[in-house]
Amino acid sequence: MKILVVEDEKGLAESITDYLSREGFVCEVANTFWQADEKISLYQYDCTIVDLTLPDGTGFDIIKTLKKIAAATGIIIISARNTLEDKLKGLEIGSDDYMTKPFHLSELNARVKSLIRRRNFGGNNDMTWKDIRVNLPQRKVFIRDAETTLSKKEYDLLLYFLSNIDVALTKESIAEHLWGDNMDSADSLDMVYSHIKNLRRKIVEKGGKDYIQSIYGIGYKFTAP
Amino acid sequence: MASLLIYAAVGIAFFWIIKFMIYDEVESRLMVEKQDFEAYVRSNDTWSNNSYFVENKIEVVPIFGKFKNEVAFTDTLISNRYDETADPFRQLTFYTLIGGSPYRVAIRKSMIESYKLIEAISAAMIAFLGLLFVSTLIFHRVLSGKLWKPFYDSLARIKDFDWTKNKPLETVRSEITEFNELGDVMEKMASKMQHDYRSLREFTENASHEIQTPLALINARVEQFIQSKDLGENHTYWIEEIYHAARRMSRLNQGLLLLAKIENQQFTEQEELDLSEVALNKLKDFEDILQHKDIRLTVQSTGSFRKVMSPALAEILLTNLINNAIRHNYNGGELRLESGPDFVQVSNTGNPLKSDPERLFERFKKESTGAESLGLGLAIVKQICDNCDLQISYQYHEPVHSIRIT
């Protein structure tokens, strides 16, 4: 899986490529509009992450070119601009997702994976890890082939974990993934805690192992014990 | 109106002047006749009514006893000899001695012609003044209609001018130099306004961009850092602090940016919305947290509060209100959403305010010292209300706080 990261802030580009490389993606970076333009005409990418504001051009133009020469490429916009017009324009010219800076790398990772899944299999596939199997189209979860019933939030939480295996996730990123960023109170962290407790219980009940590991002060990690 | 008064005053003054002059003329002629009479009496020392003067214009009446030697002019009416009408006369009365005995002499002069003259002149005056008045009125109206038309047209365009749009202001050109100059100045001011607005807007956006990017970097680096396996408890504490501070700053930045955008009226899209419906939809997003905090929700609606405003702002307004009502609620408390044709009210149970309720809607006014609260939520609510012609009021009846939007 090849990913192109178009971002002029070198440090941020590096963080994104490091993080995504750990997840097994092959990443390339373009720091300027012209680099990006050259790369998309030479190579083929499964997914492109595009910053809208570049020193020598706008991300919108890259997306337009990309749509012309490689329509199958998934496109995620990362922008500091949080305006509705930008979001609508991005979707209109063919991007698949829009994330506002600052974002969580874990969230970006989850969205890249979900985008690639949708692109490659038409959204019609199973996601399997150890003894957990998730039927995505039907939103059903099986532990050791026994179906377990999860609430909507628990299901979203599990999917977020499965997209970020072996990765330390902050409580804040989980809360934001589940409720969006208008839920900014301390209560949302308590709610994360209670949802995690329920999810853990439901997996263990069906004979699964306790995959959710707490990291003191930071959050949680989904990993094989 | 003022000109009408002036016309009336001029008319009346004119009338009096003419009257005065006619009287003056008649009286001097009466004085001349008095002299004639006295000269005649002096030379003949007698007086006969039939001689010399006709038409009982001189009346000589003998008087007895003492008499005052005075000369007086009076107005009098004398009945006509041929018909029954009474005609106005000016009369000069004086006393004299004829043949040694005292007489009162009255010399009269008919005022009929003079009165006719006054009437004729007055009528002509009134007619001419009225004509003048009407014609100036019409002239003014036509003139101001034609002359001021470019001015009023330009005024209408200035009123319609919207500096948030890119369309420049174009005033109407005319033959009047002053109006053209005014138009030039207005156009210059309008384009300056548009330019300032654009640069302010760009500045806020760029500033936000410039701040969000390093914050994104901090966040990303922290996320990378926490992946390392050998973090001590101290390290995680510091990392968490850095992470929190960066997130707080980012939210603060977004909040302030939002306030600036509302102030700059950057939310121009308008739609007729039912605010109570928006509130109900928003409440669905809060189901989890309501359940988590065990807050009882009551919805009471006696009608829909319809309002033309930006849908984005309406959502932010109600999200912030509900968020506020949940944050300052206690576990097992109550949240009430009431709405009617002209209001939406969000009430919640909560501890009494520690600070002045007047200052509730000020920026960075925080009730709790909790790090999670930014103190911008209600300031944003207030700003939205100010910009959308909504009134906001706060009430507290222990233990329920209510914020009402009308």
From TrEMBL, chain A:
<dbReference type="Pfam" id="PF00486">
    <property type="entry name" value="Trans_reg_C"/>
</dbReference>
<feature type="domain" description="Response regulatory">
    <location>
        <begin position="2"/>
        <end position="116"/>
    </location>
</feature>
<dbReference type="InterPro" id="IPR016032">
    <property type="entry name" value="Sig_transdc_resp-reg_C-effctor"/>
</dbReference>
<dbReference type="InterPro" id="IPR001789">
    <property type="entry name" value="Sig_transdc_resp-reg_receiver"/>
</dbReference>
<dbReference type="Pfam" id="PF00072">
    <property type="entry name" value="Response_reg"/>
</dbReference>
<feature type="modified residue" description="4-aspartylphosphate">
    <location>
        <position position="51"/>
    </location>
</feature>
<feature type="DNA-binding region" description="OmpR/PhoB-type">
    <location>
        <begin position="124"/>
        <end position="224"/>
    </location>
</feature>
<dbReference type="InterPro" id="IPR039420">
    <property type="entry name" value="WalR-like"/>
</dbReference>
<keyword id="KW-0238">DNA-binding</keyword>
<keyword id="KW-0902">Two-component regulatory system</keyword>
<keyword id="KW-0804">Transcription</keyword>
<keyword id="KW-0597">Phosphoprotein</keyword>
<dbReference type="GO" id="GO:0003677">
    <property type="term" value="F:DNA binding"/>
</dbReference>
<keyword id="KW-0805">Transcription regulation</keyword>
<dbReference type="InterPro" id="IPR001867">
    <property type="entry name" value="OmpR/PhoB-type_DNA-bd"/>
</dbReference>
<protein>
    <submittedName>
        <fullName>DNA-binding response regulator</fullName>
    </submittedName>
</protein>
<feature type="domain" description="OmpR/PhoB-type">
    <location>
        <begin position="124"/>
        <end position="224"/>
    </location>
</feature>
<dbReference type="InterPro" id="IPR036388">
    <property type="entry name" value="WH-like_DNA-bd_sf"/>
</dbReference>
<dbReference type="InterPro" id="IPR011006">
    <property type="entry name" value="CheY-like_superfamily"/>
</dbReference>
